[in-house]
Please model this.
Amino acid sequence: MREEEKDLYAVLGVSPLATQEEIRHAYRKLVRRFHPDSGSEEASAERFQEVQEAYRVLGDLARRQAYDRRRAERGKDLNVALAWDILVSRQQLQALPEEQMLYLLVDLKPSGKTAFKRVPLNLCLVIDQSTSMDGDRLDHVKAAAHQIVDELTKEDMVGVVAFNDRATVMYPSQPLTDPLRIHARISSIWASGGTEILKGLQAGLEEIRRHHRKDTLSHLILLTDGRTYGDEEQCLAEARRAGLEGIEISVLGIGEDWNDAFLDQLARQTGGTSSYIAYPQQVRGVMRELVQRLTMLLARDVTLTVRTTERAWVENCFRSAPPIERLTSEGGVYHLGNLLAGKATQVLFEIVVRESRPGLHPLLQLEMSAHIPTFNRQERLIFDLEREFVPEAVEEPVPPALVNVLSRLTIFRMQEQVWKALDTGQIEDARRRLETIATRLLDMGEAELAHVALLEASRIAQGGQMSSKGQKTIRYGTRGLGLR
Model:
């Protein structure tokens, strides 16, 4: 195989945008890992030779530039869509038999080295038309839907479903070539009947599937103000199936009566989002922002895979922006969904470390993988984390960017503990935590959200229960701290 046909960057596990220092660092780690005389279980003469050959080219700037030119001439595009910055809380750790915490902040973002190509949308609006939506709520939802139609293009597919205790396809999913007709159909939606989300969800997904392809972004937006009864498990099953197909579902909950725990879970099955709309007038802005984000797709199916050594393990993982969310893994794989152009995604790992021997020790390997629609290819980045363990404790200031993220995450975790305390009858504990949340929010300048937390703490102190509005405001407000 010709030299330019080999992906020498992949051999060293670095990006084509890597600096010479990053290339040297990666080379030194791989040499220690694969050298035939290293005594390592991974020692390999063949792999060692492959690393040497890659570094002979990439380690020399003139040879690297010539290699890049030959690759470009042969159509091997070295442009990459994604980049990341990784911040670690400590550069050195004390060699101890006890467990220690290490924080790893991953800032995943567009590289800025490639042009963004808009992906056509395959969108379906599923609108609750039950009796409780009558008046301002349905009027503002229809106004938001009209605005979305006006801002999409002829390349986009759009469908509209209205539901109460049955579902009606108001506008079958199709390219947006007849805006007057879809506007008329949206205007004709009126409120009546009960709320059965399953009916609307199934009809909406059926419309989505008519045009579901790899070169489009399929997304269902569910707008509701009420609870569904008896069909929640079936709804979740439909969402899981949609998620496996690559169809996202986002939920806009209007008012206080909808089941946020259920609808959060519904959206999470597909990588979508759920939003709280306290006042009908907010629907237009929230839905417009959501659809604008969807038109800026940069990468699909973004995952972070963590491979730990015997010295380390992941205690917790959070998406810290945008918005804050606790993440769970499937065999060390964390699914982040889609990445949008112009937007960064931050993930914080809490790593527990235990090592009593001084020296330089590997802790974990982090791999990012994503599909880039612009190039129709898979892209990956790899980071190997190792740290120097020393006999004596070393004082290191925590990087300010990490302090900022941790302070916001602390508030988010405290509100999680409030709900657990309330569920187990620990009312006084919930009250104290709400007051602490309010204090921390005030310190951050979040006065409005702090005021809500104090009001709800006062309700509990007087023997009452938290209001549904207050609970949703705190839950979604603390998530939104990742957007500040």
Notes: The mean pLDDT is 90. The chain has 14 helices and 16 strands. The first strand starts at residue 82 and ends at 88. The first helix runs from residue 8 to 12.
